[in-house]
Amino acid sequence: MSEQRSRQCCSLEKDRLVEELRRCDSCSTNYEEFHRCYRDAARQSGQRSRVCIVD
Fold this sequence. Notes:
With about 55 residues, the chain is mostly helical. It is about 90% helix and about 0% strand. It has 2 helices and no strands. The longest helix has 25 residues. The mean pLDDT is about 95.
């Protein structure tokens, strides 16, 4: 993947993560849900980000 495409991919992933974390903020009703949602969002985002860097 070219450097420019990698940057675009990472930028798009950052935007996805921000949206997912906002969703966690608005949907969670207690700390445990909030924590789990953030952790899951970060894990998924990390997996997608690795694809941006590796490809």
